[in-house]
Amino acid sequence: MKNDKIDKAAKKLNAAVSGIAATQTYKASEVPEELDPAKLPKEIVGQLLRAGERAVLGSTSKSRKSWALLHLAICKANGLPWFGWEMKAGKVVYIDLELISIFFDRRMAAISKALNVPHPENLILWSLRDCHPKPKINELVADTIRRFKDEGVELVILEPSYKMVEASVQGTNSEMMVAQYLEALNEIAAPLQCGIITSHHSPKGDLSTRNSIDLFSGTGVWARDPDLLITMRPHEKDDHVIFDMTRRHGAPVEPLVLCWETPFHRIAHGEDPSKIRTKQSSQKTETTGKVLDVLAEAPETGWRNRDWKEACERAGISEATFNRHRKVLVEQGKVDVLDVLGDGKRQTYRVKAQSIPSNGHMPF
Questions:
Q1: Residues 284 and 185 in one domain
Q2: Residue 137 sits in which domain range?
Q3: Alpha carbon 74 to its chain's center
Q4: pLDDT tens profile 111-170
Q5: How far apart are CA 49 and CA 236, in angstroms?
Q6: β 240-247/256-261 pair status
Q7: CA distances from 160 to 20, 82, 198, 244, 246 (A)
Q8: Residue 132 is inside which H or E element, if any?
């Protein structure tokens, strides 16, 4: 047993030495005054992510991170822009550890249909949810390189990260575990000369006072190690998020506001990215959702204002609160206002078809 441990340690040391031996040093005087742009690593996602670089997308739980990344994968495979960032078409490998494959496929089909593109030939889907036992990260690295080393892959998406960071007492708070995971991503990106993206969740609670690089739950390695940080923070408007990017190289990137319109986010032009949802605005949004939930119980013909108000009062929502939030829902276009008599004197309200109540479910 003791000899086995010594042998393993020796193999690791030899591997480390051989890796260092393959690197080269050079003099600063050898660096030209003007750097040749042609020698820059290949652009994978505009100028945000280049070949050999790693990115992490962070957001709150159930905030549609996977939808955003699948949207990116389909856009990249088809050479479409992603939130304004131009991309050339390239092969993408999407490694999913969370969804049952049929639901993953339905999401892909829905996004492709909405973009009016065929299911991409350039997109390779790899579902590992039902793989038991789950592969260790070093096993996944080796198999990813073996499968795709000669395939010309430009982008690998591996998510969610919590499925791959090995279980420990500290979990994603462990600097060592997270550092090993992120370094493993580099072991994929370097030999394949591709960009690689993973996802991680944000901490719970009020995020309005946090810097964008502090929106990753657990150890600070999540923010320090990647070349690109992408965050989606709740906007004060319902179904809106603030999309922010922090990159290691290049000028700062201005944040965007995105609005969810099933089955993906779109840029909400004119919305203010400084309007971060606070604890107080979250409570207002929750109440608005409750008022909408009550209306979801109405018949197809809808409810008159009085009927809706009385139903809210039975649910513990006061008349004054109802009036405020009914106005918000109408302004946001989440309810249809029907003119029954055509003279504006008798109006009924019903939930707009695409508005999903706060206690409802995604259609996929």
A1: no
A2: 39-267
A3: 14
A4: 999 999 999 999 999 999 999 888 889 999 999 999 999 999 999 999 999 888 864 445
A5: 29
A6: antiparallel
A7: 31, 20, 6, 19, 20
A8: none
The total number of residues shown for the chain amounts to 364
DSSP 210: S
pLDDT of amino acid 12: 56
| Sequence-separated (6 or more) residues with CB below 8 Å from residue 227 | 49, 50, 53, 54, 55, 247, 248, 249
Cβ partners under 8 Å of residue 239, min gap 6: 259, 260
Examine the domain organization and report whether 225 and 331 are in the same domain: no
Spatial distance between the Cα atoms of 59 and 51, rounded to a whole number of angstroms = 24
* Residue in the structure block whose two tokens are 């901490």: 203
Boundary-marking domain end, from 267, 288, 321: 267
For 310, the enclosing helix (H) or strand (E) is helix 305-314
Handedness of CA 338, 339, 340, 342 (dihedral sign): negative
Could you tell me which of 195, 230, 228 has the C-alpha nearest to residue 90? Answer: 195
Judgement on whether residues 262 and 283 belong to the same structural domain of the protein: no
Q: Which residue has the tokens 């993206």?
A: 197
CB-CB contact of 241 with 232 (8 Å): yes
Considering the domain architecture, whether residues 246 and 299 belong to the same structural domain is answered as no
The CATH code of the domain that includes 339 is: 1.10.10.10
Statement to judge: residues 190 and 311 lie in one domain:
no
- Residue 258: the pLDDT is 96
Pairing of strands 347-351, 335-339: antiparallel
Q: What is the pLDDT of residues 69-111, one digit of tens each?
A: 999 999 999 999 999 999 999 999 999 999 999 999 999 999 9
